[in-house]
Write a structure and sequence with these properties.
The protein is built from 15 helices and no strands. It is mainly α. Helix 4 packs antiparallel against helix 11, helix 7 packs antiparallel against helix 14 and helix 8 crosses helix 11. InterPro entries: YkvI-like.
């Protein structure tokens, strides 16, 4: 039972790391799937298979290598020199992703709370800084609470959509976009999200070290991501093209269901944005602290200020420009890791006890 509990915990961290500003808001699902009309459900299935397969490989390789950070994994995949440069590029990409997360919080404040966009950025930055004082354990506790709620609420919106007369649009809506572009989309989406998830999945896999727990967590987490993708696509596809005008389309759908449901979902979206932002900033801080030995507080403040400056471009433009570009950059990483054979032998008969830390992640020594 303890191993199953830890597998579920791994799955929730996996889902919580992928489900960020773009996913929870609906923007990411719109960009990579919904706009392709009738092709979208098949693209989601392909993407889900990649999440299960490559998600397990990342964690199993990290456990086999006893990797401290994603740079150790990249050096193994690309070689010492190239791996270091790939990690440099990933630092820049992760900064861009965090800027999107922060901008998503700003859009949420302006579009659904009638507050200033800059207020959303500043409040989220301050809350992120304060939570990082508690370390990764606090992040895991939030994910354990928020991720099941997000799954339940998204599935609820899906079933509410199925009751509507326009619900069949998700399997009949045509697309004028090229099928070649459509079938590249799940590879871009999976490559981008999995390569970015390394910041959390690598130390997670390394610290747990039990192949059975990690593989089971990858299956549960990957399928959970697929269910969320399909549910979000169904809800948005039925309301196209009007829903595409929103920066936070899933928030617009929740508004149709009544004020209370709208406020609950807006809070859930913010928590998903927030937990992913904190987890990514944590991973970047861990990586930069190992390289520079600067105080983690200084690194964290510098990272948040850089994200704040990039966030001035706005959520929609940042996501629609950066995410496909980052997906292309991540395809090489996806190809290399798919060719690697992670340790497939069964776990030892006496597997190690679960780590004392609930998250199983190393703590950054914030001082």
């Amino acid at each position: 039972m303890k191993q199953w509990a830890l597998s579920i915990q791994v799955a929730l961290v996996f889902i919580g790391t992928v489900v960020g500003a773009g996913f929870a808001s609906g923007r990411e699902v719109m960009q990579f799937f919904t706009r392709f009309g009738v092709w979208a459900p098949y693209l989601i299935i392909v993407s889900t298979l990649f999440f299960v397969w490559i998600g397990a490989k990342v964690m199993l390789l990290a456990a086999e290598l006893k990797a401290k950070s994603y740079e150790d994994l990249n050096k193994y995949l690309f070689g010492e020199l190239t791996g270091r440069w790939v990690s440099h590029i990933m630092l820049i990409v992760l900064l861009g992703v965090n800027a999107v997360m922060l901008a998503g919080a700003g859009s949420l404040f302006s579009e659904h709370l009638n507050l200033n966009y800059q207020t959303g950025l500043i409040v989220t930055m301050f809350a992120c800084f304060m939570l990082l004082r508690k370390g990764m354990n606090a992040i895991l506790m939030i994910n354990t609470f928020v991720v099941p709620l997000m799954i339940g609420f998204t599935v609820f919106l899906m079933f509410e959509t199925l009751r509507q007369p326009f619900s069949g649009h998700w399997i009949t809506r045509p697309s004028e976009l090229s099928p070649w572009v459509a079938w590249l989309s799940p590879f871009l989406y999976a490559a981008f999200n999995l390569s970015m998830s390394q910041a959390v999945l690598v130390p997670l896999g390394s610290s747990i070290g039990n192949a059975r727990i990690l593989r089971r967590g990858a299956w549960i987490g990957g399928i959970g991501i697929g269910v969320l993708l399909l549910a979000g696509h169904l809800a948005m596809s039925a309301r196209m093209p009007n829903i595409a005008e929103f920066d936070i389309p899933m928030g617009g759908i929740a508004l149709e269901m009544g004020a209370w449901l709208h406020w609950i979902y807006v809070l859930l979206i913010f928590m998903e944005i927030f937990t992913t932002l904190v987890a990514d900033i944590y991973g970047l801080t861990l990586q930069l602290h190992e390289r520079t030995k600067y105080s983690p507080w200084i690194i964290t403040i510098a990272l948040l200020l850089l994200c704040f400056l990039a966030g001035q471009f706005g959520f929609g433009p940042l996501l629609s420009t950066l995410y496909p570009t980052f997906g292309l950059l991540s395809l090489g990483w996806l190809f290399l890791i798919s060719r690697n054979h992670a340790e497939s032998s069964p776990p030892p008969s006496n597997p190690p006890n679960p780590p004392a830390s609930p998250s199983g992640l190393p703590e950054v020594p914030f001082r």
